[in-house]
Design brief:
alpha+beta, 2 domains, eight-stranded mixed β-sheet, globular, binds adenosine-5'-diphosphate, binds magnesium ion, endonuclease activity, endonuclease, hydrolase, DNA mismatch repair protein MutL
């Protein structure tokens, strides 16, 4: 007979509740980088600088030139379920921002030493600084100079949750995850200038701007020149749906599905329906056990897709799944038909 492990019910202290919730959002340094950069993108930044030390375990700093946070909102920004991005369930249905759950800053500050500088004005002297340390104290707010925009510094991730800290891998592995998160964000937003530094060395420096040439340069930098030289452009539209991007030739494949990027309205996602449509389209042209390489951007009306399926927002639900699936399949099938031997570019045999 084992001892009962349940006792009386009581409400969790807010700090503990925050730390438990943080586990869903903040898994490792890469998750912090993703959330902070998404915030910077939502703030309309044209330039975002990311700096890490020791794979991010020691330091993560994200600096942006976006809208900044108003003084009166600074305390709220770090509290749970506080967001400027939605007001109602209706807003959620058509959400265009990357964030909306109001959890990332609260979760991160619950498990790290977080410092935030922000300014909504062009006068640097109007800036503010907020510090929060593991939620053991209320965030402290004081005046501090900062240019228009926001800088968030996260030190000693999981310093107060040793069980989590133990799960951090080597510096190299953690930085690898950060780089992958960076790659996704950089592929999602070609228009934003992005810089990634690790241990004071510049790892990526990607100029912004939305012109074709810059876009291809970025694809080449992040996916390799060989991909671009061995890929077909996709540019298809149907009512309410558009698919753009690059699909690798059937001769340019990999043994792992590790270079497959699919974006829905600017958000990278993993989806079984999408994977199925792509697999079907490649079915006749790919050798068994090989995996295609692609970077694809699907745009559809925000009402047509539910992004509030999971805290990390890597999953979505399409309202008309069949329609999306068939559009993807037929667009890719048509693009790949041109590569099929003897097809002469015809649509179907
Ligand atoms: P969410 O992004 O889901 O709203 P967060 O916890 O990530 O939740 O951020 C809380 C709020 O803080 C945001 O809604 C936004 O108003 C503000 N904020 C966070 N980061 C930035 C930033 N870099 N620039 C401007 N505002 C920011
Ligand atoms: Mg956010």
């Amino acid at each position: 007979q084992s001892a009962a492990v349940v006792g009386r019910i009581h409400a969790l202290a807010p700090r503990l509740a925050n730390q438990i919730a943080a586990g869903e959002v903040v898994e490792r340094p890469a998750s912090v980088v993703k959330e902070l950069v998404e915030n910077a993108i939502d703030a309309g930044s044209s330039r975002i600088e990311i700096e890490l030390e020791s794979g991010g375990a020691k330091l993560i700093r994200v600096r942006d030139n976006g809208s900044g946070i108003a003084h009166d909102d600074l305390g709220l920004a770090l509290s749970r379920h506080a967001t400027s991005k939605i007001d109602s369930l209706d807003d959620l249905e058509g959400v265009a921002s990357l964030g909306f759950r109001g959890e990332a800053l609260a979760a991160t500050s619950a498990v790290s030493r977080l410092e935030l500088y922000s300014n909504i004005s062009d006068e640097p002297a109007d800036g503010w600084r907020v510090v929060a340390e593991g939620r053991e104290m209320q965030p402290r707010i004081s005046p501090a100079p900062h240019p228009r925009g926001t800088t968030v510094t996260v030190r000693d991730l999981f310093f107060n949750t040793p069980a989590r800290r133990k799960f951090l891998r080597t510096e190299k592995t953690e930085f690898g995850h950060v780089e992958e998160a960076f790659r996704r964000l950089a592929l999602a937003r070609h228009d934003v200038e992005l810089i990634l530094r690790h241990n004071r060395k510049t790892v990526h420096q990607l100029p912004g701007g939305n012109h074709q040439e810059g876009m291809e340069k970025r694809i080449a930098q992040l996916m390799g020149r060989a991909f671009l030289d061995n890929a077909m452009r996709v540019d298809m539209a149907a009512t309410g749906l558009a698919l753009r991007g690059w699909v690798g030739l059937p001769t340019h494949t990999r043994s792992q599905p590790d270079q497959q990027y699919f974006f829905v309205n600017g958000r990278v996602i993993r989806d079984r329906l999408v994977a199925h449509a792509v697999r079907q389209a490649y079915r006749d042209v790919l050798f068994h056990g090989r995996h295609p390489v692609f970077v694809l951007y699907l745009e559809l009306d925000a009402q047509g897709v539910d992004v509030n399926v999971h805290p990390t927002k890597h999953e979505v639900r399409f309202r008309d799944a069949r329609l999306v699936h068939d559009f993807l399949y037929s667009s890719l099938h048509r693009a790949l038909a041109e590569t099929r031997p003897g097809s002469g570019g015809a649509d179907d045999e």
